[in-house]
Amino acid sequence: MLENLIAxxxxxxxxxxxxxxxxxxxxxxxxxxxxxxxxxxxxxxxxGYIASTGRFxxxxxxxxxxxxxxxxxxxxxxxxxxxxxxxxxxxxRFVLLSGEDLQRAERFFARFGNAAVFIxxxxxxxxxxxxxxxxxxxxxxxxxxxxxxxxxxxWCFALAYVGYELGRRWESDPRLRAVLHSMDAVxxxxxxxxxxxxxxxxxxxxxxx
Length: 209
Fold this sequence. Notes:
The chain is mostly helical. It has helices at 2-20, 22-33, 40-52, 58-91, 99-112, 115-120, 126-129, 131-136, 141-172, 174-182, 184-208.
């Protein structure tokens, strides 16, 4: 059941990016940055793959992703700013945000201050939730938007570059194609198990809390 759900989400991401282009990349990254569990690790590599076919520009794909991150992060910032901790704790469970996730993001922000917004954008998991404590701390909008865009652009470009290089070498390097084909089942299994572990562990933490 969970495997089918993950496969369906991945297929939906591919369809949106294929059909909507840059705006699809921006919309999907906005959803991810609004604390909704949608993996940028699928969105941006596929955008990079499309860039390898000539349909996208790699820098523009990263820019579209970063713009989407700013849009979604602004929504999450507003939730933290106006709702505060009680609101986040009450409703966060519906997007699999546990109290532990929120505390981790708060500690990260408390340790690094405004720069935490930039640093967190380069890290998995915490990058998604850092906007909440930034909003709760009333961080000024200009540095928040700047740090969010720069950090997100680097993250998006790095992921897109991976997809770009794989796509570029897919046709030119038959050995790479053979290796990837032989590892298809392993790669899919690792992704499915990793996603399943993440979802199940968050659900268990939520029940304990």
